[in-house]
Fold this sequence. Notes:
84% of the residues lie in helices and 0% in strands. The chain is mainly α.
Amino acid sequence: MFKEILRSKLFRAGAALLLAGASPLLLYILYEFVSGRRGGNPIGLGLLFFVSFWPAVLLLVIGAVSGLRRYAGGAGKKT
């Protein structure tokens, strides 16, 4: 069942978009935590995350639903 979801191109595109949108902000937060520097203002990274999050979630949901429909339709059943 999960293999069918992971095979969906829309699900993979949504995961890649989520990774590309969230990783710069998360890396910046990790850098501040490790280095101890404070006072930065990552507005651009936050906007990138904000703009890419909802389209990524939408693609993930559509990809998961299409993968589950493919699994329920008989393509995932082995005889």
